[in-house]
């Protein structure tokens, strides 16, 4: 009798689970087709790491135009001042702090300073990143450590510094800038791919932890394919209609849209996520053939001069 009761209860739970799955899939499909309401971020205190140049710089400029108070962190003081001045001349609010995000003590010290001078950070965008673009055996031990420290460990330090106030106020948003290299390994980017896979795992686990706490703090993970930031001087793609090179301005716009829509994970361009997910269902060789076919950022015979001419000219 007990076994029949348990079977009945399990059947009901399974039916409820499947109903929820169908509902969520339909809902998310509709939301991805129809325009999704964007939240207002005016008045929010938005801290962006690695904001002296590239995507971080554009994020700071565009977010300031939306009425947010922007806090810029980087190790390049000269460029920080330039971006802050540009935002101020545009009528925005910006503050800058030189911070080494690989140092937990420096992150904590600057976090306290930001709270004193600007206010509690309500939106954190972990954007700082570096890329070496070298085959495995040409990577130095120090270079590998630096990549992991900047691209991954820094996320832990900043999140631990700002999450407590977000949870206290039950309000906040954390954005982790990963990469499509965090979903599929990229040639000559082994340390970079490893660090970005770590970011995806970190953000997914953090989101689940917050969900179980019934916290209103949101998370968004961004996985750009290739953005023309200067890391790759001549990024290569044979199929630009399918796998385009994205400008920093457009990348920043799409990241801000994902933030305001409170999307969970977004690739740039968005459509790439479907092919990446589908590729995991196929034999690995299919993915390899696809990458060879598109010639996407492939460097034949390790001819890095195609992609990094100034380094090879030294």
UniProtKB/TrEMBL annotation:
The keyword Lipid metabolism applies. One of its GO terms (molecular function) is all-trans-retinol dehydrogenase (NADP+) activity. It is a multi-pass membrane protein. Transmembrane segments: none annotated. It comes from the Eukaryota. GO terms for cellular component: lipid droplet; membrane. InterPro entries: KR_dom, NAD(P)-bd_dom_sf, Sc_DH/Rdtase_CS, SDR_fam. Keywords: Lipid metabolism, Membrane, NADP, Oxidoreductase, Transmembrane, Transmembrane helix. It holds the Pfam family adh_short. Residues 44-228 form the Ketoreductase domain. Coiled coil: none annotated. It is found in: Membrane. Belongs to the short-chain dehydrogenases/reductases (SDR) family. Catalyzes the reduction of all-trans-retinal to all-trans-retinol in the presence of NADPH. This is Short-chain dehydrogenase/reductase 3. The lineage of its organism: Eukaryota, Metazoa, Ecdysozoa, Arthropoda, Chelicerata.
